Amino acid sequence: MNQTSISEFVLLGLTDLIDIQLSLFVIFLMFYMVTILGNLSIMTITQINQSLHTPMYFFLWNLSFIDLCFSSVAVPKMLSDFLVLKKTISFGGCICQIHFFHFLGSTEVILLTNMSFDRYIAISNPLRYLQIMNSNVCMTLALFSWIAGFFHALIHTVLTAKLPFCGPNIVNHFFCDVKPVLKLACADTTLNLNLLIRITGTLATTSFVLTFFSYVFISKFLLRIKTATGRRNALSTCSAHLTVVFLLYGTAIFTYLRTSTEHALDQDRVIAVLFTVVTPALNPIIYTLRNKDMRKAFMKIIQRSLMHK
User: Fold this and answer.
1) pTM listed for this prediction
2) Strand partners, 170
């Protein structure tokens, strides 16, 4: 029988220090604006510039869309909570946050693995790159990322929603994530925690290992390139992706492979700021600054807009 008597949860938020909440609101609002503008810019540039209609930028469009949505799952609620005393969220809203957070997060992890495979093909077999990474292959890999991410999140969402919650209802986080919500359940959550560690941990670790080996093979082909300029050009197509990979995988593996002690939950709250606020804002900057084609396309758009004026 469903024993859930709680209709809403209270979020502790990022900090209980009222004096610094307004400052944090301004800082995180700026990060969120950078996330929106940066990722929308990449999505727009890759669509309107014909030279960027390649597999690499198809995956980059997907990554930017995911980052935009992923940050929007938690950040707007966090920003509004900085301005109120009681930070509440409905039971349904909490379950939705859990689902979309894990859906978009796991989709991004799988997509980054697919992007490493794309870079491997581009460097190891440049003459047949477009033939191998044709539109059907790219669409299949992207759809697999989205579908696998959805069902991965659905497992945690359904199992969490079916638990009885009788009180207390205070979530030790600034948004609803599985581990802090499970602490409030009035039932044994061993199965939920084991599945979280095994499924999410396996997903993140496996994806990281596959990405790592992709770059091991890439490095072998880089060593075969005789000119320093050629190696530099090949490496430049991978550097932005590698930076994003280490930012995301490092925090994800650290968060979901540990036990959910109270001290660990406090650490998770701080770490979550990295992959919900900082990383989605940094990704478009990393890909723009470290990608020659993106810089050229961006400058062309600016020049066209100035000429029209």
Assistant:
1) 0.87
2) 10
